[in-house]
Amino acid sequence: MTFTSRSSHVVSVRPHRGRTAMFVNDQPLAGMAWLGAIFDLDNSEARHAREMADAGVSIFLAPWHFHQRQGMGPGWKGPGQYDFAVFDLWADRLASLRPDIWLLPRLSLDTPCWWADQHPDELTRYADAPDQIPVFRSHHRNPLQASMASTVWIDDVREVLGAFIKHVEGGPWAGRILGYMLDSGGTEEWVYWGVQAGLIPDYGSAALRYYRAWLRRKYGDESWIGAATIPTEPQRRRGTPGMLRDPAQDRAAIDYEMCLSDIVADNLLAWCTTVKELTQRTRLTGAFSSYLLWHTGLVNPACTNGHLGLRRLLEHPDIDFITGITSYDNRGPGQCGSFMLPVESVQHAGKLVFNEVDVRTHRTASHSSGRYASTGLIHLGPLKDAAESVDVLRREFAHHLIHGAAWWYFDMAGGWYSGPEITAEFQKQRQIAQEALAWDMTSVAQVAGFVSGAAPARHPLVRMHDLINHPSLLALQADRATEALYHAGVPIDWWMVDDLALPEMTRYKVLYFYNATCMTQAQVQALESLKCDDRVLIFVGYPGLSGDSALAPDAASNLVGMRLELDLHRQPARLKPRTYDHPLFGEVVSELALGSGAPISPRLLPRDPQATILAHWPDGEPAVAIRKHDRWTSIFLPVPLDNTEMFRAICRCAGCHIYNSNDDVVFANRSLLAVHFNRSIGTVELPRAMRVTDLFTGQTMPLRQHTLAIDAPGGTHLFRLDPPST
Known about the structure:
By secondary structure, the protein is α/β, with parallel strands linked by helices. Helix content is 26%, strand content 20%. The protein is built from 18 helices and 32 strands. An 8-stranded parallel β-barrel has the order 4-5-8-9-10-11-12-13. A 7-stranded mixed sheet has the order 15-14-16-17-24-23-22. A 5-stranded antiparallel sheet has the order 25-26-32-28-29. Helix 10 links the parallel strand 11 (321-323) and strand 12.
């Protein structure tokens, strides 16, 4: 299909001021956006959109769905039959708000029932009944869906995309279009179909064909591949026993988890390429995907979700932005609202982090969040009042702005972000975001965290549903397992282990390896080159233990820099010191017990005569250890470091600048500093003399030497940092 757009503007993502940004032609665009209640097109929703436009928001997402939603007809009615009326209505209303409004169509690409009826052999099948067609459910957790491996499905949707893009680019809003967001999978987040309903995918014929082709690409044309089958649920759940697969017996399960994520990535990228080709590469493409900092760790629902393919996306030229959501586990007042994506890796690859912020404000009705009660998500209730809502929304703004991420506020049920206090806040946010396009946003973090896209597949299959009633297990996965790090008063950058060889790594003083369970030889070599300059390396869990064909304690010992012994005995993770005299415990203010109490096996036990044991397992075996080498220091923990004071002491001993010791959340770059207060107002220590301006009040803040005392109500404060006046 070929056609010419009515508009010649070109939209791209480019490096900008130390991060990445959207550009229209050669002008950068502030990344603040809004999406209204996707089921509601009545006058109240139009009023909420008007409020956002009056507040200065200039990017609006406009939905279009294949399926029927609460009175709205389906967008894809049958072969070659399309209805764009709902999108047209949205676009008309939004474009009329202001002449400078930009539109980003958000397409929901799931399977119409008529398509499923016509193609039963192309559907997703599940472990509990692989020979049965799933039963249709009329809500967003409907498991009756085309397999993401189905080339028939992918090709048919390409035709639909062509028709939609032709309609939009040939219509009156062509000059307003930034790009196309392609949403599919559970809750439109490219979570593999059925997972959110508690099912285990994919056992359909399309997935089997893909899996055998995947095996041939990996192993060559081996005779056994033609008879290979998808591992059963018991095979995918099997451990050593415990929380780690043994490559000697579980290679097929490891392969299939990686294959499942490649299925998701290939489906997504096929449609991104279609959009790029149809628009002559003049529009953006992107999607939700790859939550490597959520649902990963010692327990890993992320692999069942199909979210391990981030590296594939980062290396592909046809996707411009990747979307996560503000953490559902630490988004409350006083918490960090962490990202689900390793932001620095995404940006280094030239992509934009374009996140969804769906914070429930004081205007959110309790029933709007009640339907998620069974998910185990813990921060979905409304905030208590307007002041608390503004505080949390300002934290979201500061976090995204400082890290160079774009974002949209998602008013999921209508009116969440209405009211004078919030709209006044958004007016100021928009003004600051526009001014910040000229500021240097380069990171100043001295701490880097590393996450792996391959490690989750080395752990047994676990569903989100298996963890809901087990808080000790939930605490072992990000982003609950990383929350304590954000309160240490040090900014943190997050990367993938694939990026260890980049020259940027040498500026960090502390490297935190969250889940380096398996590493390639190239990654190991890159890590070895960083064992110098008095750097501190923190290793968690099973670093380097899972090899290509077996568990390898010697490889883990070499990686960590201390002798580690593999032990299969199961013990609860309550790791306690026998003495508090070590410098790393000098800031601990109460009895220390690292870990959530969840039983753990296997274990890596530090048995190195040159290491100092810092904490022990309940059975007396060594658990946490530190070893100082000539040019670097190694710290090993069998579970994530969940004590803020200990992490702050590690960073202080490594020579990191500590902005704040009050357990507040701190974000910073070369031009900006934000503090989200946890308990009470305190002071902030700046690394050098600066001129400090409160961006929300315009007040120039007094400094005593390098100390900033904030004599103002608690909450979130955002400051501009400039060289001191001469």
